[in-house]
């Protein structure tokens, strides 16, 4: 079973990489792009066949390693 985890900084947390991207886009002539935020996308192939157990397993992974839950939010997607 495939799982995806989308990790983004929480609202209100300064995103220096997002700001750097925003400034670089403007310098390259791409106007109108503001409030740029960057994040991480992690894909996992799991041996689990039950979607609920897979989601719980990935949630534990996020809480223990994949996301810094003090400053980051995460979303889990489970699929075939």
Give a short synopsis of this structure.
This protein has 80 residues and is α+β, with helices and mostly antiparallel strands. It has 2 helices and 3 strands; from the N terminus they run βαβαβ.
Question: How are the SSEs ordered, and which strands pair?
Answer:
Blueprint: E1 2-9, H1 16-27, E2 39-45, H2 51-66, E3 72-79
**What's the mean pLDDT score?**
96
Compute the gyration radius: what is it?
Answer: 16 Å
Strand content: 25-35%
- Percent in helix: 25-40%
* Strands side by side in the biggest sheet: 2-1-3
Give the structural class. Answer: alpha+beta
* Run of helices and strands: EHEHE
CATH class: Alpha Beta
- Report the major sheet: 3 strands, antiparallel
How would you portray this structure in words?
With 80 residues, the chain is of the alpha+beta class. The protein contains two helices and three strands, in the order E-H-E-H-E. The chain is 35% helix and 29% strand. A three-stranded antiparallel beta sheet has the order 2-1-3, covered by helices on one side. The radius of gyration is 16 Å and the shape is elongated. The chain starts with a strand and ends with a strand.
List keywords for this structure.
80 residues; alpha+beta; Mth169, Chain: A; 3-stranded antiparallel beta sheet; 29% strand; elongated
């Amino acid at each position: 079973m495939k799982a995806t985890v989308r990790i983004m900084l929480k609202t209100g947390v300064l995103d220096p990489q997002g700001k750097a991207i925003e400034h670089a886009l403007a310098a390259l002539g791409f106007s109108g792009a503001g409030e740029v935020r960057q994040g991480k996308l992690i894909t996992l192939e799991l041996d689990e066949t039950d979607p609920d157990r897979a989601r719980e397993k990935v949630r534990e992974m996020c809480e223990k390693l994949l996301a810094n839950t003090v400053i980051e939010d995460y979303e889990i997607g489970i699929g075939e």
